[in-house]
Design brief:
With about 575 residues, the protein is mainly α. About 75% of the residues lie in helices and about 0% in strands. The chain contains 21 helices and no strands. Helix 5 crosses helix 8, helix 9 runs antiparallel to helix 16 and helix 20 runs antiparallel to helix 21. It starts with a helix and ends in a 14-residue tail after the last helix. The C terminus is likely disordered.
Length: about 575
Amino acid sequence: MEDKLAPVSDPSRESEPRRESEPSLARLLAKEFWRVTRWLARLARGEVVKRVGGPARARVVTLFGAVLALNGADTATVGAIAPQLEHALHIGNTKIGLLSTVALLVGAVFTIPVGLLVDKVHRIPLLAVSIVLWSIASIVSATAGSYSTLLLTRLLLGAVTASAGPAIASLTGDYFPAHERGRVYAYILGGEIAGTAFGFIISGTVASLIDWRAAFVILGIPGFFLARELWRTVPEPLRGGQSNLQEGVVDLHQALAEATQRAAQQPEGPPSTEEFHAAPTVQEDIAQAAARRKGARPNPRLVLKEDPSRMSLPRAIRYVLSIPTNVAMIIGSSLGYFFFSGLSTFALLFVRGHYHTGQAKAELVLGLLVSGALVGTLVGGRLTDALVRRGNIEARAWVPAICYVGAAILLIPGFVATKLTPAVWFDVAGAALISAANPPLDAARLDIVPAGLWGRAESTRTFLRSVAQALAPLLFGGVADLVAGFVPDQTPIGTHLRTTPVSPATATGLEVTFLIMLVSLVAAGVFLARARVTYPTDVATAAASQEAATARGRSTGTAVVPRPEPGSAG
């Protein structure tokens, strides 16, 4: 009887404790994963702080790098979602290239007036507002119902990205001493490379798994948080390098307050010889010191007799384009960016079509290329800073020249090889050399232009560079379509189930186009090799102009300007 009255076991109830334990185990694993992620993030943050010289410096470098990351991600996203755009909007390579071209051209046009604003108004608010508008334009791009609408949104997006280059260049010159700008620029440009990786890998994956519209939405969201962080935590520095952040600084606002107090206590009138030589050696401009040791003399025709900060925009543009080294570096840098812009726009299409890979493997290849570019960027800045400190002042010109020519040579087997495994390592090395040229060139441009013209000089350079970047996708796409027209139609192979196939004709057209456009890298190397001859003289000229502006500002009491750095009087 007792057996009959015994409760009958319910299999569904017995399984309940096991089902309840499963979520708890998942939560435990998720918690541990989150703890490990946070630990790795803190470890990475600590390494960044150590490398750049303190928490305050790390904040500035990280946020400036994040601003450039947005620009890099946007440019790369168009190339990453190109297969989906071709299929959804029924367009070819030429129209894909036009999407990047219009944004860059409009940005180039707006860069010139923005450069004037950068030299006249507070740059941090200008940058923050531009980032918010950029994010809005990116999200609006996701709502485009046709190619013409998407083209219009890209045009609007280009207009609001114009402030990034001039503002970051001017702020970097004011926040960091000249003797380490090459290294600092390497870290900041690392953000641009990280953004390019995000655009290629994340946006490409999102477009293949969800939709190309989702890629634009995900791209636009981080900008709102970045603008808020920039506005709240980075104060506007004093002009002319008076608020350079020394290593070990913890509180950014306190450092700026102390710099403002020091500037207010500076005596009027030009500094005496004793004061000039007693200035802290940590502030010494290594390029100017190297030019002085080399015996370089300023060019009397280019030494400014007026306050550079008060020059009109046309006069400022004419002056910066009269500096021989600046012209050569603008041309060389523009040619390098021309090639990289075209390559990044069509790299995903090329890898998938030429090596017959799926979307995931193509994105892995692009990840390797980005890693190589990041290594090249970090090494390029440190190497040239070390060479200039040893007296090799021309290093900021001839090292980029060698990098561009070397990259052209290494990329040839990377493009023509039919097997992915050997080809990718040539491509990685080529990407590293192209990126290694950028930090020394960015540092060199600050060496040869007086501080009062940094914003307008960078806007002039950005305008010409953006025109070259804008033409690249259009020319690359046009030439590729022209070549593809001569290739017999074949059935696409090596495609992924979730991705749109890439035809062999498209792959062949891109291969031939990439090989032809390598000429631009060689030409960039030639122009930069010529710049090494005029660089010492132009460094001495910029130092003499800055010294004259300093003396005029203190004698008239109209402006607070920094003392010239030791060795700046050619």
